[in-house]
Amino acid sequence: VQLQAYGGGLVQVGGSLRLSCAASGSTFSINVFSWYRQAPGKERELVALILSGVTTQYAEPVKGRFTISTDNLENTVYLQMNSLKFEDTAVYYCYAKQNGMSYWGQGTLVTVSS
Questions:
Q1: Reduced to 3 states, what is the DSSP secondary structure of residue 27?
Q2: Could you report the per-residue pLDDT of 72-104, keeping only the tens digit for each?
Q3: C-alpha torsion 64→66→72→74, nearest 10
């Protein structure tokens, strides 16, 4: 499985951005997609996950602002980010789990500025 993340960029406080992560290769039976982020000088943290394309979970700091979703036909997972704050600045990574194996995409940088 290969994961290609894109959609990061520079956005103002209060703005929105949508990240995408396209999965390719043997994508059958991927049951978990997640987004993580890592801010400068901090540990990588879970932002949101979606189980079997249905059940979602969010980290407390992003609840009500971020939405994770999948497009199964295109094997793509999205992260819609609204009401962005300075503290959302980080490199965002997509993650997939398939049959107990973990896969990571390359990061995409999100910078929130005034």
A1: coil
A2: 777 899 999 999 999 999 999 999 999 889 999
A3: 150
Measure the CA–CA gap between 1 and 60, rounded to whole angstroms: 29
Within 13 Å of residue 24, how many CA atoms lie on the same side as its CB? 4
pLDDT in tens, 7-63: 999 999 999 999 999 999 888 788 899 999 999 999 999 999 999 889 999 999 999
Nearest CA to 46 out of 112, 94, 100 is that of 94
- Which residue bears the tokens 């290969």? 2
Rounded to whole angstroms, how far apart are CA atoms 6 and 51? 21
Q: How far apart (Å, rounded) are the C-alpha atoms in residues 84 and 110?
A: 10
- Beta-bridge partners for 6: 20
> Is residue 67 within 8 Å of 58, Cβ to Cβ?
no
CB count within 10 Å of CB 2 equals 13
C-alpha atoms less than 13 angstroms from C-alpha of 51 in its C-beta half-sphere: 4
